[in-house]
Amino acid sequence: MRDIQTLLSTFPRENISLVPTPFHRLKNLSHETGCDLWIKRDDLTGFGFGGNKTRKFDFLLADAKKQGCDTLIGIGANQSNFCRILAAVGSYFGMEVHLILSGEKPEVSTGNLLIDHLLDATIYHVPRLERESKAKAVCETLTAQGRRVYFMPPGGSTPIGTLGYAVAFYEILHDMKKHGVTIRHIIHASSSAGTQAGLVLGQAISGWDGKITGISVDVPEKELTQAVYSLASEAGAMMGITLSPNLVHCDENYIGKGYGIPTQACLEAIKRFASREGIFLDKVYTGKGASGFLDYCKTGKISPHEPALFIHTGGNIQLFE
Ligand SMILES: Cc1ncc(COP(=O)(O)O)c(C=O)c1O
Q1: Pocket around ligand 1: residues whose beta carbon is below 6 Å from it?
Q2: How far is the CA of 145 from the centre of ligand 1 (A)?
Q3: Residue with CA at minimum distance from ligand 1 atom 16
Q4: Same domain, 271 and 305
Q5: Which domain holds residue 306?
Q6: Over pLDDT 70: what percentage of the chain?
Q7: Would you state the pLDDT for residue 1?
Q8: Among 44, 148, 160, 186, which residue has the fewest nearby CB atoms (within 10 Å)?
């Protein structure tokens, strides 16, 4: 098996995430479903309330520093987990932070937005379709003022950000070994493609013989599959790795009415994880991801004979929206 650390040794990296994150069996849910269910607790990556974005920032922030940037600019929804981590990372490293958020400015800031304010980020509220043009304008203005800006798309899903989840994939391989469990199906919530692309890249590098399924929370399956494959290929190309499109599996059946609109199954999954395992999911991402995970147990897509893993990608601050 190729060594990921050697492959990544030329990429600058910060240790923002507190890793390895816990990996453990879901005892009560396994009992209830008759399956052997495990969880990777990336809700506990530590920094800025944690979640999958800190792993992306291990590489993104290092890249920004390498480029001599002093200002971070990001795009997201009002309750963006990515923007919350961005604000925390920027503050910590003494950089200026600008967030372009879709959604009206609420009278009272809650959840992630409350934290963005606490961290003194400069926030621009714009309609969804104006986010990119506003970001471009903010980048131009700040550059004209002499700032060196590092701009990131939604979710920090760039080839560099993707590397964080290739590392996470190897961590999971190590977890399996340590716990003596052979998992052949990994499931997680997917949206801007970066998390899944990184995992798939890790799979391609390691040659792991299993399946990763991204449960889409908003993007149609075909579009997300293409986005994951493109991003994983771009990230792989940076280190001379090519990968097969057959590694990418996305499932659009748990989206419901769209981004941020919870389905009944999502709400039920949140309740079940909370009451049975003391684990808190969110209504935008992990609740939908977990609704797919539990449904796979019911429909036999997760076999009772094959241990399966859910990656908790964080976001539970959203419960306090
Ligand atoms: C909590 C949470 N889970 C999952 C995702 C999906 O990750 P990605 O955007 O990398 O597909 C996000 C991203 O926004 C998230 O905030």
Answers
A1: 51-52, 81-82, 155, 157, 189-196, 282, 285-286, 313-315
A2: 33
A3: 81
A4: yes
A5: 4-52+158-320
A6: 100
A7: 74
A8: 148
Ligand 1 centroid to Cα of residue 90, in Å, is 19
Q: How do the residues of the chain divide into helix, strand and coil, expressed in percent and rounded to 5?
A: 50, 15, 35
Average pLDDT of the chain? 97
- CATH number of 95's domain: 3.40.50.1100
**Ligand 1 mean position to 204 CA, how many Å?**
21
Q: H helices of the chain, where?
A: 4-7, 27-33, 53-66, 81-92, 111-118, 131-144, 159-179, 194-206, 221-237, 264-277, 286-299
Task: Compute the average pLDDT of residues 208-230.
Answer: 98
Boundary (domain end) residue, out of 155, 185, 204: 155
In the β-sheet with 96-102, what is the strand arrangement from edge to edge?
122-126, 96-102, 71-77, 149-152
Which residues are annotated as catalytic? Answer: 80
Give the Å distance between the CA of 216 and the centre of ligand 1.
10
Instruction: Work out which ligand 1 atom sits closest to the CA atom of 314.
Output: 1
Residue 262 predicted with pLDDT over 90: yes
Give the domain-ending residue among 155, 187, 220: 155
Please count the structural domains in the chain: 2
Q: Answer yes or no: do 235 and 295 share one domain.
A: yes
Kindly give the number of the ligand 1 atom that is closest to the alpha carbon of 194: 10
- Give the pLDDT of residue 2: 82
Q: Are residues 219 and 77 in the same domain?
A: no
